[in-house]
Design a protein that fits this description.
Elements (H helix, E strand, L loop, with lengths): L12 E5 L4 H12 L3 E5 L21
Parallel strand pairs: 1-2
Length: about 60
């Protein structure tokens, strides 16, 4: 068992504000990689890179 196994979030839900860019996006990705389901919230709904963050997708997915 690695140290990261002790911090798994399988079966948990994380609500992340500011999830479309910057630190909020990084936190959402990190929490998802740890196994959490993410509810991402963003005020502006900016599409700087053409993506819409509200569309569900698996971590590392298309």
């Amino acid at each position: 068992m690695t140290i990261l196994d002790k911090f798994r979030l399988d079966g948990k839900v994380a609500i992340v504000t500011g999830a479309s860019t910057g630190l909020g996006q990084g936190m959402a990705i990190g929490l998802a990689e740890a196994g959490a389901d993410i509810v991402g919230v963003s005020e502006g709904g900016r599409k700087e890179d053409g993506r819409q963050f509200h569309e569900p997708s698996p971590v590392g997915g298309a």
